[in-house]
């Protein structure tokens, strides 16, 4: 990837400045490009609203009412996000206040690629264990549950939807094209549990609804976690493909499935490192935007850069550790740690490289290069996220003000991620960027399922 002039100098040592200048050429996305992306993305949104089968699917969520904050009651919710799986009891107390009790479960790797029955049985036994712990015994009446299932689903009712395709490393047999609510309900029946799915919820819709419970200005829900996606409030007359009845509210929350944006690779500034990641992924050619932005992939982009520099003897004196050879060994969480390392000699970065990646004896130069690459990949992710947020605000004509609720570990834990989004929004929207409030919608995907179950009740 080095520029030809530099590639020619095979026998001279390439300086740190030259390496980093090349990386900046590749990874810095300037304001002109940002604006082009927004414009192109809005066009893609509209295609998705017009007809089925568009790249950005724009899936109707069947959620047509937003909460008032006065809803009350206790609801069970499941949140299957990609990395984490939670069983929650959501207590809506009215007056916009919510209490949450939750238990986290780790999804065994073998469940992610087994037959669907194995995965859904695992979900059902987790619910069983949660209920046992909390002493709740479902009585004659079935417990109603909100199911947050954060994979592309073609929803056909609030409590029914067919899985379109697995993403984020899942690939269970005998599931694609089938109704995920039915599969979960059947697993409850197999376990003899009196629990039934009342609402099937995408995490983006849940995040929007949960934040709207205490901030009615909330019109967008975004996920920046294992994957990325968003939902927003759309006027029903703009959803040309909608053939159902017009709801009283005149609006419907749309699950964009924006992770799939630019599968044509027509607009996003892909580098050879992104293309390599895509080619080696479980879903090559798909979810291109997600692969530049979300937690499952950011570390791997950095690893691909490191491998290239190591091969060219520009990093770690050409030493490639066994750990670094492994796909996904450089985790996105390491990027957060490295970006938080403000010490003069990057001492924590040294520990990460040594203890977690098996690269001892790094030089200060090595560590500066590593840190800058991490920063470039992290900044690019935040700026590209801003493009699609700006696209949604533009589509809604809400430049005069709205709240964007954001959930997911990348937004919550990656240092400066929110500020970097805000910086890019300023470049994109000028003074209007001040009207857009970015808010952490912590646990929104779980709470929102409870809120939606309450509205369905
Ligand atoms: P889910 O997507 O399952 O709902 P999360 O929102 O917790 O779960 O996102 C998990 C993703 O966040 C993982 O891909 C992981 O790499 C990434 N992640 C976890 N911790 C951090 C961190 N400190 N900084 C950046 N990314 C992180
Ligand atoms: Mg989540």
UniProtKB/TrEMBL annotation:
Q: Which CDD domains match?
A: ASKHA_NBD_HK_fungi
- For this UniProt record, give its keywords in alphabetical order, as a comma-separated list: ATP-binding, Glycolysis, Kinase, Nucleotide-binding, Transferase
Hexokinase C-terminal domain residues: 220-455
Reaction it catalyzes: D-fructose + ATP = D-fructose 6-phosphate + ADP + H(+); D-glucose + ATP = D-glucose 6-phosphate + ADP + H(+); a D-hexose + ATP = a D-hexose 6-phosphate + ADP + H(+)
Q: Does the keyword Kinase apply?
A: yes
Residue span(s) of domain Hexokinase N-terminal? 20-213
Supply the name of the protein.
Phosphotransferase
Q: Tell me which species this is from.
A: Piromyces finnis
Lineage, top ranks: Eukaryota, Fungi, Fungi incertae sedis, Chytridiomycota, Chytridiomycota incertae sedis
